[in-house]
Amino acid sequence: MPDDSHRDPIRVGLIFGGASGEHAVSIRSATTVARGLRSGPNARRYAVRCFYIDPQGRWWGPELADTVLKQGIPASEQQLAGAGATGAAGGFRGFPPGALEMEVWFPVLHGPNGEDGTIQGLFTLMQVPFVGSGVLGSAVGMDKQAMKAAFAAAGLPQVPYACVNADELNGDPTVLLDRLERQLGYPCFIKPANLGSSVGISKATDRAGLLAGLREAAALDRRIVVERGVTARELECAIKGGGVEPLEASVLGEICFDADWYDYATKYSEGRSHTVIPAAVPEPISERARAMAIQASAAVNAQGLARVDFFYDEAAAELWLNEINTLPGFTSQSMYPMLWEASGVALETLVHELIEAARQWHRRSPQGEPPA
User: In CATH terms, is domain 10-114 a member of 3.90.190.20?
Assistant: First the structure.
């Protein structure tokens, strides 16, 4: 990596929040990333400025952004009104003061408008480096229907699934319900195609539950995925690199929880779940999962960072690819930084490597889009 010890600190824009149902999770992730960028050698390498996107899509500068990070919760209406009244934060649908001075962006925007290629397209148009996957990898990795199609084309094993359009619920849904019961049976899981962090996901054990789950998902996204339920352990693997450096896979981790399934409340409530790192699985399974994680990233053109999730049927020694997250969480309970920590890569080193990778991609690609 380039030696930046004799140059001015690199101006890094850390952007978080967003017009997404995962707004609050983004704040928690950004708090961790900011700590890593401002610790150890990174405090000399980088001049970090934080930018906050409120739920209405307005950008705010460091004055309000730093306040939101410090309080750990979204800005209140009073805070937004006060910041707008003084003009110090520049809340408007444009760039706040200082944004155009950033040399590299570190987006920590989970969900729609943040990890789906939207903001990646903006940074690409600006021809400025940014951490994470480009437009294509972000968009395909975000949409579960497109993601599963890419995995299927690459020959990667998945549990049986079906794609649904919300329009199929108009009128009499009997034909749709008959098809899903025939293809998948019960239990099954209903998922909005473009939301993460288990938002809008439900489990159905009968027709009434299936219909209710479909309607809940359809209220959040017009594209829906329904998956056959399996009895399996949930394993995860972190990925970094790609584009210039080869993709690397971390050790495996396992999510253990005290609920029927790993829903939003279980995921983000203290004491409801815990992680086991490294996961206690046979070495051949670990090697297979790590190889599949790299193959899954390549299948959707993901690079920079990603987390790949698996279902593991221990009795049958069967491993299924569940999904890829191209902008995984960085909260205190998130697997991505913990998996790399267990693999010998501390938080400060990890965020530094991610920024350097983004800068290398940009130098190699005249259009600013990470090379395929």
Answer: no
